[in-house]
Design goal:
By secondary structure, this protein is mostly helical. The longest helix has 30 residues.
Length: 406
């Protein structure tokens, strides 16, 4: 058995654990994205701020990424994942208290803590590559992302059962999320990952490039732009979807089912995205993802029937999968091992910074840019255009650059 076979055996075990973590712990995010804007509408005095709870989740993720990535590099991924799950449980309980007391501030505080979990979860995909060979790396990322398939089913369907469990609407959702975090964190005991630089004092750490030099690397900057645009546009449209669905006369359960279909589309292609990247190249897969995101906007703008919502959100999930997994793979191959903590933390700060802006803008566009839900929904989808142009232009620029070794 070769060294590569041994490493991939270890990596496959870690991938299996991370897939389960993605499925169980990850179920909380579709639950929150369905009811976050609706809960915000109940408590916010200004309808333009309805999606602020979701914005605070993403803001929490953005501000967590710069410190949790180096923390994981020093103390190990497992420590960071436990911390994230604990924050997810605490955030759900604080948000539940906010709903119980009709405190918009406490709902936002709980949402921020949930953002710490979201940031930690974002590193599952990077943890999958820590012990993987170069050949297995894109597949490892794809398999971990595919764990979201179960979360796409479990989350919205569980939400149907618990969202009205108490007199206060959506209180049961947050209580259930706290339980998911406390149970799911037990999985991390089974990870077999590097323990961090502090646990290996005999190894001399090699200094990596500075942030300024890293941002001069074309593949790093384009990977960050494409990842940022793919994730931000997905969030922009998905955040408004429950408000648009209910605003167009459909039910909260319809919104649950549409978000479930969307999240399934986000993760189902992950079984073969890695193979497609290996066969066709990462640039073509990212370009395909951006094109699908554009088509999702076209479908959304063409009508507000349930079929339009379903098709647009399914395409939105598929486009995100190709665009974001492709950008993640591009980034993972564009830096040296000793630069991992800096690059990944910097990337997630930029990505979730833009997602924060997108989620906040989503509520403003949806509720305050027109007199009807249809006008607001159209404004949300038209806002995708300039960002798709930015990402597409950067990808074309990268393809024209001479290839350089990392």
């Amino acid at each position: 058995m070769t060294a590569t076979d041994i490493n991939d055996t270890r990596a496959k075990r870690n991938v299996a654990v991370l897939v389960l973590a993605q499925a169980i712990l990850g179920a909380q995010l579709p639950m929150i994205f369905v009811i976050g804007g609706l809960a915000g509408s109940q408590l916010a005095t200004n309808p333009c701020l309805a999606t602020l709870p979701i914005s605070f989740i993403v803001f929490g993720s953005m501000t967590t990424a710069p410190w949790i990535s180096p923390l994981m590099q020093r103390n190990g991924r497992r420590f960071g994942f436990f911390l994230g799950a604990f924050a997810g449980a605490a955030g759900a309980l604080v948000a539940a208290y906010g709903l119980y007391t009709s405190s918009f501030f406490m709902l936002l505080a709980g949402s921020y803590l949930t953002g710490i979990y979201m940031s930690a979860q974002g590193f599952y995909r990077f943890a999958a590559t820590d012990t993987a060979s170069e050949a297995f790396r894109p597949k490892a990322i794809s398999y971990v992302m595919a764990g979201g398939l179960l979360s796409a089913i479990v989350g919205p369907q569980l939400n149907k059962l618990v969202q009205d469990a108490f007199i206060v609407p959506f209180l049961g959702t947050y209580v259930a999320i706290a339980v998911l975090n406390l149970v799911g964190m037990l999985l991390f005991f089974f990870l077999d990952l590097p323990k961090g630089s502090k646990a290996q004092p005999e190894k001399v750490e090699v200094a990596g490039r500075s942030r300024r030099d890293l941002l001069r690397e074309p593949r790093i900057i384009v990977a960050m732009i494409c990842g940022m645009v793919s994730y931000a546009l997905m969030n922009l449209v998905m955040t408004s979807t429950p408000l648009a669905v209910v605003g167009c006369g459909f039910t909260t359960n319809n919104a649950n089912d549409i978000v479930s279909a969307h999240v399934l589309a986000m993760f189902a292609p992950s079984f073969f995205t890695g193979h497609l990247i290996a066969r066709f190249g990462v640039e073509k897969i990212v370009a395909t993802g951006l094109a699908i995101l554009a088509f999702a906007g076209v479908v959304a703008l063409s009508g507000v029937t349930l079929a339009n919502f379903y098709i647009a959100l399914i395409l939105l999930g598929l486009g995100w999968n190709f665009g974001f997994i492709g950008a993640t793979t591009m980034l993972a191959g564009a830096h040296r091992p000793e630069e991992r903590g800096v690059v990944q933390g910097m990337n997630d700060m930029v990505v979730f910074g833009m997602v924060t802006v997108a989620s906040l803008a989503s509520g403003g566009l949806m509720n305050c840019s027109g007199g009807t839900a249809v006008e607001g929904w159209n404004a949300v989808n038209l806002a995708m255009v300039p960002f798709l142009v930015l990402a597409g232009g950067s990808l074309i620029w990268l393809v024209r650059q001479p290839k350089m070794a990392v």
